[in-house]
Design goal:
Layout (H helix, E strand, L loop, with lengths): L2 H30 L3 E7 L4 E5 L11 E6 L4 E7 L5 E6 L4 E5 H5 L10 E6 L2 E7 L5 E6 L4 E5 H5 L4 E11 L4 E8 L4 E6 L4 E5 H5 L4 E11 L2 E8 L4 E6 L4 E7 L11 E5 L6 E6 L5 E6 L5 E5 H5 L11 E4 L6 E7 L2 E7 L7 E4 H5 L10 E6 L2 E8 L1
Antiparallel strand pairs: 1-2, 1-28, 3-4, 4-5, 5-6, 7-8, 8-9, 9-10, 11-12, 12-13, 13-14, 15-16, 16-17, 17-18, 19-20, 20-21, 21-22, 23-24, 24-25, 25-26, 27-28
Length: about 375
Protein backbone atom coordinates (compact mmCIF):
# COMPACT_ATOMS: atom_id res chain seq x y z
CA UNK A 1 0.00 0.00 0.00
CA UNK A 2 1.44 3.42 -0.89
CA UNK A 3 2.65 5.43 2.09
CA UNK A 4 0.09 8.19 1.57
CA UNK A 5 -2.78 5.66 1.67
CA UNK A 6 -1.30 4.06 4.84
CA UNK A 7 -1.13 7.49 6.49
CA UNK A 8 -4.71 8.24 5.48
CA UNK A 9 -5.91 4.93 6.90
CA UNK A 10 -4.12 5.58 10.19
CA UNK A 11 -5.62 9.06 10.33
CA UNK A 12 -9.11 7.71 9.73
CA UNK A 13 -8.59 5.13 12.48
CA UNK A 14 -7.47 7.82 14.92
CA UNK A 15 -10.48 9.97 13.92
CA UNK A 16 -12.84 7.04 14.57
CA UNK A 17 -11.25 6.45 17.98
CA UNK A 18 -11.61 10.12 18.88
CA UNK A 19 -15.23 10.08 17.64
CA UNK A 20 -16.08 7.06 19.81
CA UNK A 21 -14.37 8.65 22.82
CA UNK A 22 -16.20 11.90 22.16
CA UNK A 23 -19.54 10.11 21.85
CA UNK A 24 -18.97 8.22 25.09
CA UNK A 25 -18.00 11.47 26.82
CA UNK A 26 -21.21 13.08 25.61
CA UNK A 27 -23.27 10.13 26.87
CA UNK A 28 -21.53 10.24 30.26
CA UNK A 29 -22.02 13.99 30.43
CA UNK A 30 -25.72 13.63 29.67
CA UNK A 31 -26.09 10.94 32.32
CA UNK A 32 -24.18 13.08 34.82
CA UNK A 33 -26.48 16.02 34.16
CA UNK A 34 -29.84 14.29 34.36
CA UNK A 35 -32.73 15.83 36.24
CA UNK A 36 -32.10 16.84 39.83
CA UNK A 37 -34.02 18.60 42.59
CA UNK A 38 -33.94 22.40 42.43
CA UNK A 39 -34.99 24.87 45.11
CA UNK A 40 -36.62 28.20 44.38
CA UNK A 41 -36.18 30.39 47.46
CA UNK A 42 -37.62 33.80 48.32
CA UNK A 43 -35.55 35.36 51.13
CA UNK A 44 -38.02 38.18 51.79
CA UNK A 45 -36.26 40.31 49.22
CA UNK A 46 -35.30 38.33 46.12
CA UNK A 47 -35.86 34.99 44.41
CA UNK A 48 -33.01 32.58 43.68
CA UNK A 49 -32.79 29.14 42.06
CA UNK A 50 -30.38 26.49 43.34
CA UNK A 51 -29.55 22.99 42.14
CA UNK A 52 -29.35 20.96 45.35
CA UNK A 53 -27.15 18.33 43.62
CA UNK A 54 -28.91 15.29 44.97
CA UNK A 55 -29.07 12.01 43.05
CA UNK A 56 -30.40 11.90 39.49
CA UNK A 57 -34.16 11.54 39.94
CA UNK A 58 -36.87 9.35 38.52
CA UNK A 59 -38.06 11.55 35.65
CA UNK A 60 -41.65 11.55 36.97
CA UNK A 61 -40.87 11.52 40.66
CA UNK A 62 -43.24 12.94 43.20
CA UNK A 63 -41.71 15.33 45.73
CA UNK A 64 -42.44 15.99 49.39
CA UNK A 65 -41.03 18.93 51.30
CA UNK A 66 -41.61 20.28 54.80
CA UNK A 67 -39.81 22.00 57.67
CA UNK A 68 -39.19 20.42 61.06
CA UNK A 69 -39.65 22.30 64.33
CA UNK A 70 -38.45 24.07 66.37
CA UNK A 71 -35.27 24.33 64.29
CA UNK A 72 -36.99 25.15 60.96
CA UNK A 73 -34.93 22.43 59.28
CA UNK A 74 -35.53 22.02 55.53
CA UNK A 75 -36.26 18.49 54.24
CA UNK A 76 -37.07 17.31 50.70
CA UNK A 77 -37.97 13.73 49.71
CA UNK A 78 -37.94 12.28 46.18
CA UNK A 79 -37.32 9.14 44.10
CA UNK A 80 -33.94 8.54 42.51
CA UNK A 81 -33.49 7.08 39.02
CA UNK A 82 -33.29 3.65 40.73
CA UNK A 83 -36.57 4.48 42.57
CA UNK A 84 -34.94 4.67 45.96
CA UNK A 85 -36.58 7.11 48.38
CA UNK A 86 -34.02 9.79 49.15
CA UNK A 87 -33.85 12.79 51.44
CA UNK A 88 -32.15 16.14 50.86
CA UNK A 89 -31.74 18.09 54.10
CA UNK A 90 -30.16 21.41 55.03
CA UNK A 91 -28.03 21.52 58.18
CA UNK A 92 -27.89 25.31 58.31
CA UNK A 93 -24.78 25.51 56.16
CA UNK A 94 -25.03 23.01 53.31
CA UNK A 95 -27.31 20.39 51.75
CA UNK A 96 -26.77 16.64 52.19
CA UNK A 97 -28.37 13.70 50.39
CA UNK A 98 -29.41 10.46 52.10
CA UNK A 99 -30.62 7.18 50.58
CA UNK A 100 -33.44 6.15 52.92
CA UNK A 101 -34.25 2.96 51.01
CA UNK A 102 -30.68 1.70 51.44
CA UNK A 103 -30.64 2.84 55.06
CA UNK A 104 -33.91 1.16 56.07
CA UNK A 105 -33.82 -1.88 53.78
CA UNK A 106 -37.27 -0.94 52.46
CA UNK A 107 -38.43 -1.94 48.96
CA UNK A 108 -37.95 0.22 45.88
CA UNK A 109 -40.76 2.61 45.07
CA UNK A 110 -43.15 2.33 42.14
CA UNK A 111 -41.62 4.05 39.11
CA UNK A 112 -42.97 7.57 38.67
CA UNK A 113 -44.76 7.35 41.99
CA UNK A 114 -45.82 10.01 44.46
CA UNK A 115 -44.02 10.84 47.71
CA UNK A 116 -45.72 12.64 50.59
CA UNK A 117 -45.21 13.38 54.26
CA UNK A 118 -45.14 15.79 57.19
CA UNK A 119 -43.34 16.37 60.46
CA UNK A 120 -44.47 16.45 64.07
CA UNK A 121 -41.74 18.53 65.67
CA UNK A 122 -38.61 16.68 64.52
CA UNK A 123 -40.33 13.33 63.94
CA UNK A 124 -40.58 12.86 60.17
CA UNK A 125 -43.20 10.75 58.38
CA UNK A 126 -42.71 9.93 54.70
CA UNK A 127 -45.11 7.77 52.68
CA UNK A 128 -44.66 6.14 49.27
CA UNK A 129 -45.98 3.28 47.17
CA UNK A 130 -43.66 0.32 46.70
CA UNK A 131 -43.38 -1.41 43.33
CA UNK A 132 -46.02 -3.95 44.43
CA UNK A 133 -48.51 -1.19 45.26
CA UNK A 134 -48.12 -1.46 49.03
CA UNK A 135 -48.13 1.85 50.92
CA UNK A 136 -45.03 2.20 53.09
CA UNK A 137 -44.19 4.57 55.91
CA UNK A 138 -40.65 5.76 56.55
CA UNK A 139 -40.41 7.16 60.08
CA UNK A 140 -37.57 9.14 61.60
CA UNK A 141 -37.98 8.93 65.39
CA UNK A 142 -35.36 11.60 66.10
CA UNK A 143 -32.69 8.92 66.11
CA UNK A 144 -33.10 6.43 63.24
CA UNK A 145 -35.15 5.78 60.10
CA UNK A 146 -37.41 2.71 59.85
CA UNK A 147 -39.65 1.39 57.05
CA UNK A 148 -43.10 -0.16 57.69
CA UNK A 149 -45.48 -1.81 55.21
CA UNK A 150 -48.86 -0.28 56.10
CA UNK A 151 -50.76 -2.27 53.48
CA UNK A 152 -49.58 -5.54 55.01
CA UNK A 153 -50.58 -4.29 58.46
CA UNK A 154 -54.10 -3.22 57.46
CA UNK A 155 -54.96 -5.56 54.59
CA UNK A 156 -55.98 -2.58 52.48
CA UNK A 157 -55.97 -2.61 48.67
CA UNK A 158 -52.91 -1.86 46.56
CA UNK A 159 -52.19 1.71 45.46
CA UNK A 160 -52.06 3.03 41.91
CA UNK A 161 -48.80 4.69 43.03
CA UNK A 162 -49.76 8.14 41.79
CA UNK A 163 -52.42 9.75 43.99
CA UNK A 164 -51.04 9.99 47.50
CA UNK A 165 -51.19 12.67 50.21
CA UNK A 166 -50.80 12.68 54.01
CA UNK A 167 -51.72 15.03 56.86
CA UNK A 168 -51.66 15.04 60.66
CA UNK A 169 -54.79 16.29 62.44
CA UNK A 170 -54.76 18.33 65.63
CA UNK A 171 -54.76 18.39 68.58
CA UNK A 172 -54.58 14.58 68.64
CA UNK A 173 -51.64 14.28 66.21
CA UNK A 174 -53.50 11.51 64.39
CA UNK A 175 -51.90 10.32 61.14
CA UNK A 176 -53.89 10.18 57.88
CA UNK A 177 -52.79 8.94 54.45
CA UNK A 178 -55.12 9.22 51.45
CA UNK A 179 -54.46 7.35 48.22
CA UNK A 180 -56.14 5.90 45.14
CA UNK A 181 -56.31 2.13 44.89
CA UNK A 182 -55.74 0.24 41.67
CA UNK A 183 -59.55 0.19 41.44
CA UNK A 184 -59.45 4.02 41.58
CA UNK A 185 -61.26 4.26 44.91
CA UNK A 186 -60.03 6.88 47.38
CA UNK A 187 -58.70 5.04 50.42
CA UNK A 188 -57.66 6.27 53.84
CA UNK A 189 -55.00 4.76 56.07
CA UNK A 190 -55.23 6.30 59.53
CA UNK A 191 -53.65 5.92 62.95
CA UNK A 192 -55.28 7.69 65.89
CA UNK A 193 -52.99 6.03 68.41
CA UNK A 194 -54.19 2.43 68.37
CA UNK A 195 -52.46 1.23 65.22
CA UNK A 196 -53.15 1.60 61.51
CA UNK A 197 -56.52 0.92 59.86
CA UNK A 198 -57.94 1.25 56.34
CA UNK A 199 -61.17 2.82 55.01
CA UNK A 200 -62.58 2.87 51.47
CA UNK A 201 -63.88 6.47 51.30
CA UNK A 202 -65.37 6.05 47.83
CA UNK A 203 -67.46 3.09 49.01
CA UNK A 204 -68.44 4.94 52.20
CA UNK A 205 -69.62 8.10 50.41
CA UNK A 206 -70.79 6.78 47.03
CA UNK A 207 -68.50 9.27 45.30
CA UNK A 208 -67.03 8.62 41.84
CA UNK A 209 -63.80 6.80 41.12
CA UNK A 210 -60.73 8.99 40.71
CA UNK A 211 -59.75 10.26 37.28
CA UNK A 212 -56.56 12.28 37.81
CA UNK A 213 -52.96 11.86 38.81
CA UNK A 214 -52.73 14.16 41.83
CA UNK A 215 -54.67 14.53 45.09
CA UNK A 216 -54.57 17.07 47.92
CA UNK A 217 -55.79 17.30 51.52
CA UNK A 218 -56.04 19.77 54.42
CA UNK A 219 -57.48 19.78 57.91
CA UNK A 220 -59.01 22.25 60.34
CA UNK A 221 -58.46 20.67 63.77
CA UNK A 222 -59.87 17.15 63.24
CA UNK A 223 -62.17 17.97 60.30
CA UNK A 224 -60.60 16.62 57.11
CA UNK A 225 -60.89 17.66 53.47
CA UNK A 226 -59.60 15.64 50.50
CA UNK A 227 -59.67 17.05 46.95
CA UNK A 228 -59.42 14.98 43.78
CA UNK A 229 -60.52 14.76 40.15
CA UNK A 230 -63.34 12.28 39.72
CA UNK A 231 -63.86 9.95 36.78
CA UNK A 232 -66.64 12.40 35.81
CA UNK A 233 -63.83 14.99 35.28
CA UNK A 234 -65.26 17.14 38.08
CA UNK A 235 -63.36 18.39 41.13
CA UNK A 236 -64.64 16.57 44.23
CA UNK A 237 -64.26 17.10 47.95
CA UNK A 238 -64.35 14.28 50.48
CA UNK A 239 -65.28 15.87 53.82
CA UNK A 240 -65.04 14.38 57.31
CA UNK A 241 -67.11 16.42 59.79
CA UNK A 242 -65.72 14.60 62.84
CA UNK A 243 -68.53 12.02 62.58
CA UNK A 244 -68.89 10.77 59.00
CA UNK A 245 -67.57 11.21 55.44
CA UNK A 246 -69.44 12.81 52.50
CA UNK A 247 -68.51 13.47 48.86
CA UNK A 248 -69.39 16.75 47.13
CA UNK A 249 -68.99 17.83 43.51
CA UNK A 250 -67.37 21.29 43.63
CA UNK A 251 -66.50 22.14 40.03
CA UNK A 252 -68.31 21.01 36.85
CA UNK A 253 -66.62 19.06 34.09
CA UNK A 254 -66.58 21.98 31.64
CA UNK A 255 -63.70 23.39 33.70
CA UNK A 256 -62.31 20.02 34.70
CA UNK A 257 -58.82 18.73 33.85
CA UNK A 258 -57.64 17.97 30.33
CA UNK A 259 -54.73 15.81 31.50
CA UNK A 260 -53.18 14.69 34.78
CA UNK A 261 -54.37 17.85 36.47
CA UNK A 262 -52.37 19.37 39.30
CA UNK A 263 -54.43 20.16 42.41
CA UNK A 264 -53.43 21.83 45.69
CA UNK A 265 -55.45 22.96 48.71
CA UNK A 266 -54.60 25.23 51.60
CA UNK A 267 -56.28 26.83 54.63
CA UNK A 268 -55.64 30.49 55.37
CA UNK A 269 -53.87 30.41 58.75
CA UNK A 270 -56.03 31.21 61.76
CA UNK A 271 -59.26 30.84 59.80
CA UNK A 272 -61.64 28.30 58.29
CA UNK A 273 -61.18 29.73 54.79
CA UNK A 274 -60.25 27.02 52.28
CA UNK A 275 -58.65 27.60 48.89
CA UNK A 276 -58.31 24.89 46.23
CA UNK A 277 -56.26 25.43 43.07
CA UNK A 278 -56.25 23.16 40.05
CA UNK A 279 -55.30 22.99 36.38
CA UNK A 280 -58.52 22.72 34.38
CA UNK A 281 -59.98 23.60 30.98
CA UNK A 282 -57.47 24.93 28.44
CA UNK A 283 -54.86 24.17 31.12
CA UNK A 284 -55.90 27.32 32.98
CA UNK A 285 -55.28 27.58 36.72
CA UNK A 286 -58.55 27.89 38.65
CA UNK A 287 -59.32 28.84 42.24
CA UNK A 288 -62.15 27.36 44.31
CA UNK A 289 -62.86 29.57 47.32
CA UNK A 290 -64.96 29.01 50.43
CA UNK A 291 -65.25 30.61 53.85
CA UNK A 292 -67.44 27.94 55.45
CA UNK A 293 -67.15 24.82 53.25
CA UNK A 294 -70.76 25.32 52.19
CA UNK A 295 -70.72 28.05 49.54
CA UNK A 296 -68.02 27.86 46.89
CA UNK A 297 -67.02 30.37 44.21
CA UNK A 298 -64.70 29.75 41.27
CA UNK A 299 -62.28 32.01 39.39
CA UNK A 300 -60.06 31.52 36.33
CA UNK A 301 -56.71 32.92 37.50
CA UNK A 302 -55.01 32.44 34.13
CA UNK A 303 -57.73 34.58 32.55
CA UNK A 304 -57.51 37.18 35.32
CA UNK A 305 -53.74 37.55 34.88
CA UNK A 306 -53.82 37.14 31.07
CA UNK A 307 -51.17 34.42 31.24
CA UNK A 308 -50.66 31.12 29.43
CA UNK A 309 -52.10 27.92 30.84
CA UNK A 310 -50.11 25.52 32.98
CA UNK A 311 -48.73 22.08 32.19
CA UNK A 312 -51.57 19.63 32.76
CA UNK A 313 -49.46 16.69 33.94
CA UNK A 314 -47.55 18.48 36.71
CA UNK A 315 -48.43 18.91 40.34
CA UNK A 316 -48.93 22.47 41.61
CA UNK A 317 -48.22 24.03 45.02
CA UNK A 318 -50.26 26.57 46.99
CA UNK A 319 -49.86 28.11 50.43
CA UNK A 320 -50.45 31.31 52.39
CA UNK A 321 -47.54 33.15 53.95
CA UNK A 322 -47.75 34.53 57.50
CA UNK A 323 -48.51 36.82 59.20
CA UNK A 324 -49.65 38.67 56.05
CA UNK A 325 -51.92 35.86 54.75
CA UNK A 326 -50.78 36.48 51.18
CA UNK A 327 -51.69 33.73 48.69
CA UNK A 328 -49.11 32.04 46.46
CA UNK A 329 -49.63 29.40 43.76
CA UNK A 330 -46.74 27.76 41.89
CA UNK A 331 -47.15 25.85 38.65
CA UNK A 332 -45.34 25.00 35.42
CA UNK A 333 -45.79 26.87 32.12
CA UNK A 334 -43.82 25.13 29.36
CA UNK A 335 -40.58 24.37 31.22
CA UNK A 336 -40.73 27.41 33.50
CA UNK A 337 -42.01 27.65 37.07
CA UNK A 338 -44.48 30.50 37.49
CA UNK A 339 -46.01 32.10 40.59
CA UNK A 340 -49.53 33.48 40.91
CA UNK A 341 -49.57 35.97 43.77
CA UNK A 342 -52.40 37.74 45.64
CA UNK A 343 -51.14 40.35 48.16
CA UNK A 344 -54.53 40.98 49.83
CA UNK A 345 -58.15 40.04 49.03
CA UNK A 346 -58.79 43.63 47.93
CA UNK A 347 -56.00 43.56 45.31
CA UNK A 348 -55.65 41.59 42.08
CA UNK A 349 -53.69 38.48 41.16
CA UNK A 350 -50.36 38.86 39.36
CA UNK A 351 -48.08 36.35 37.61
CA UNK A 352 -44.28 36.06 37.63
CA UNK A 353 -42.09 33.67 35.64
CA UNK A 354 -39.66 32.64 38.38
CA UNK A 355 -37.46 30.63 36.01
CA UNK A 356 -36.90 33.68 33.80
CA UNK A 357 -36.40 35.87 36.87
CA UNK A 358 -33.79 33.58 38.46
CA UNK A 359 -32.29 32.04 35.30
CA UNK A 360 -33.21 28.71 36.87
CA UNK A 361 -33.26 25.19 35.48
CA UNK A 362 -35.56 23.83 32.82
CA UNK A 363 -38.40 22.09 34.69
CA UNK A 364 -39.19 18.45 33.87
CA UNK A 365 -42.72 17.72 32.55
CA UNK A 366 -45.14 15.32 34.29
CA UNK A 367 -43.39 15.44 37.64
CA UNK A 368 -44.06 16.49 41.19
CA UNK A 369 -43.59 19.75 43.04
CA UNK A 370 -43.56 20.69 46.72
CA UNK A 371 -43.27 23.83 48.77
CA UNK A 372 -43.95 25.64 52.03
CA UNK A 373 -43.35 28.93 53.79
CA UNK A 374 -41.64 29.91 57.01
CA UNK A 375 -43.42 33.18 57.79
CA UNK A 376 -42.78 35.07 54.52
CA UNK A 377 -39.77 33.01 53.44
CA UNK A 378 -40.86 30.75 50.56
CA UNK A 379 -39.40 27.44 49.37
CA UNK A 380 -40.47 25.58 46.23
CA UNK A 381 -38.95 22.28 45.02
CA UNK A 382 -39.15 20.84 41.52
CA UNK A 383 -37.29 18.60 39.05
CA UNK A 384 -35.03 20.35 36.52
CA UNK A 385 -32.64 19.29 33.78
Amino acid sequence: MPSNRIAAAKGAKRLLQFSVIGLMSMILALNAHGQQIHQLNYNNSNWSDQNLFGAVTDSKSGIAGFPTTPNDGLHVYYLSSSDHVRQLFFNGTSWSDEDLTAETGGPVAMAGGAVTGFSLQNFQYVFYSAADGHIHQMLYNNSNWADTDLTSQTGGPASDGLQLVAIATTPNNALHVYYASTGKHVQQLYNVGGGWANQDLTALTGGPATGGRWISAVNIANTQFVYYFGSDRNVHELFYNNVSWTDENLAPSNIGPLGGGGISATVIPGSKKIRVYFVGASNHVFQLKSTNNQTWSIADLSKKTKTAGGSAGNQIVAFATTPNNQMHVYYMVGNDINQLFLPTPSTTWSNTDLTALTHGGSAVPNSGMAGFSLQNLQYVYYLAE
